[in-house]
Design goal:
By secondary structure, the protein is an alpha/beta fold. It folds into two domains: about 140 residues, NAD(P)-binding Rossmann-like Domain (Rossmann fold, 3-Layer(aba) Sandwich); about 180 residues, Dihydrodipicolinate Reductase, domain 2 (2-Layer Sandwich). The chain is about 35% helix and about 25% strand. The strands form two sheets. It has a nine-stranded mixed sheet. Helix 5 links the parallel strand 5 and strand 6. It is globular, with a radius of gyration of 21 Å.
């Protein structure tokens, strides 16, 4: 399938371009970017054509799909434009910062019968469905609390980068429509997948480095059954691991793996990975009294599902559609909208139904 990249605004744009170039069923041929200099540089990096007029890509019948990594503020307009041109769309999260925009994108994709896939990569990791199944099987009993944390240090200063390594556009609210919450939104959609959709969201934001957008965020989620969820995201944590905690009336589940900061630190110190202690590798364990308390049980993490990009290619090729991915993406937009509204108004906000 011949495809084109639409914007390298998001840093993952170049990652997906590299993946597409290496994919046996994709041929990446062009890049459009409204920032001409960025577009020319990106196209040269990957050995593809820079196209100055987006319509030239959209009107080319030989290009069947597009990979969209534009500013969040442009997602709805750009993605709908691509869908109307009949292109299959793979895109960086989120669908939109507003549920209305997200619903418009999904509705248009369904009406046009094009394959739309959102990169929610942690939902495809083996531990996600494994933990959800453990919860469904009653290992923790009735869930009473859940907490997921994800963070990296890329807003913090380093040698040669006194303002950190994230581009300043990531803190521009007009383009990004938020900071650490919307960009590192993985805990929100994982809580939805594992625990369900909450009733309300209350946000707390921090600006540790003094930027316009938040570089530190926490969301308190309230569920109809009395459970509480906590989602934490940060650009200013140097070593923090990625962690999932699920607690309930009968037991607990704990998952951890080295965070991005630990991986970066190890590489800077000349090692391909963190040290080999028990907390320096993916680790999933649970303890339950539902079948008699046998202490903490460590279990092997399941293999990952196919990557989102591979799923997209398969949907485009076979005519199938990734409805679970789209439902999760819609729920994410609803949570993101509620979280920013909560920060703006200083109160819990009801989550809109999807």
């Amino acid at each position: 399938m011949k495809v084109a990249s639409i914007s390298f605004w998001h840093l993952h744009g170049t990652d997906y371009a590299r993946d597409a170039l290496q994919h046996p069923e994709l041929e990446l041929v062009a890049l459009w970017d409204d920032d001409r200099d960025r577009g020319i540089a990106g196209a040269a990096l990957h050995g593809i054509e820079y196209v100055e007029d987006l319509d030239a890509i959209l009107e080319d019948p030989s290009i069947e799909g597009v990979i969209v990594c534009s500013p969040t503020s442009e997602h709805t307009e750009l993605v709908v434009r691509c869908i109307r041109a009949g292109k299959h769309v793979f895109m960086e999260k989120v669908l939109s910062s507003k549920l209305e925009g997200a619903e418009t994108i999904v509705r248009k994709a369904r009406e046009a019968n094009v394959a739309l896939t959102v990169s929610l990569w942690r939902s495809d990791r083996g531990y996600t469905d494994q933990i959800a199944d453990l919860v469904s099987d009653g290992v923790v009993g009735r869930v009473t609390s859940a907490r997921i944390r994800d963070g990296h240090p890329f807003a913090l200063p380093t040698d040669g980068h006194p303002r950190g390594t994230l581009p300043e556009r990531f803190y521009d609210l007009a383009q990004a429509e938020g900071g650490a919450l919307i960009d590192l939104c993985h805990p929100l959609y994982l809580l939805t997948r594992i625990v369900g959709v909450p009733r309300t969201v209350m946000s707390a934001f921090g600006q540790v480095t003094g930027r316009q957008a938040e570089d530190n965020a926490a969301m308190l989620l309230s569920y109809p059954n009395g459970a509480i969820g906590i989602a934490e995201t940060s650009y200013v944590t140097r070593i923090t691991p990625f962690t999932i905690e699920i607690h309930g009336t009968e037991g607990s589940i704990l998952y951890s793996e080295p965070g991005i900061g630990a991986l970066v630190s190890a590489r800077r110190n000349g090692s391909p990975s963190p040290s080999d202690g028990p907390d320096d590798r993916p680790r999933l364990r649970y303890r339950t009294v539902s079948t008699g308390d046998s202490g903490w049980q460590e279990v092997q993490v399941r293999p990952d599902a196919p990557r989102a990009l591979d799923q997209w290619v398969e949907h485009a090729k076979t005519g199938t559609r990734g409805e679970r991915n789209l439902e999760l993406a819609l729920s994410l937009s609803s949570l993101v909208e509620a979280a920013y509204e909560s920060h703006s108004e200083g109160r819990p906000i009801a989550v809109k139904a999807v």
